[in-house]
């Protein structure tokens, strides 16, 4: 079973997972589970694409035999040996064991060729980037800067406005208005906040015009009492072209290069902005 070609002419093997989460599992925990699984997949360098979503229940499902899922995930690898290598990674086993101990769910899966060949499977790869900076401030000073999404309009120059649409101690949904290369754009992002691990997983729910997928993580890792390693990751790809154009203007290759350049530029700028703000706050605390 070697995989059928995708639209780019590359053979793929697909891993499909059907989940049934117990009614007691909160939506925010389900979202965080998939966010962490997606991050592990892309960070491995073995997974070419990853997606997840809800099952749409039909009336007939109530009478069906066997397990009817309420969520589904799917990812693609280059071939079966690559899929096997990913499945045997300790980080994957650790992640699943940790979540098995936290939430109640059942899962079924299948490994298979690309089955849809009528242009529905989206053959363009996802990009994964990781940027980091060391902050001369305690993690307990850095972390509130990351959580204060409304403050991004103050410390990130391109961000014009942030409006929180929904919020709990463990998640935020916010609309951002951002100057992107001189053009004002807006999108809605969900942020899942893991206070214990000091990780914020984010993904766009309503995309910017050129974006097909955008997600990633902020991570704050303590380096002793007075220093923090700050990590920012992105998983992204452009929107699929319509009539050969993305957002009605650019070829896929042009949009891809523009987004990659913006991610590189903004990652460095955003990390630098958090570093400056956290070190300013830490200096103020020391002076007091």
From TrEMBL:
Gene3D superfamilies: 3.30.530.20. Transmembrane segments: none annotated. SUPFAM superfamilies: Bet v1-like. Residues 135-261 form the Coenzyme Q-binding protein COQ10 START domain. It comes from the Bacteria. CDD domains: OtcD1_ARO-CYC_like (cd08861). InterPro entries: COQ10_START, START-like_dom_sf. This is Coenzyme Q-binding protein COQ10 START domain-containing protein.
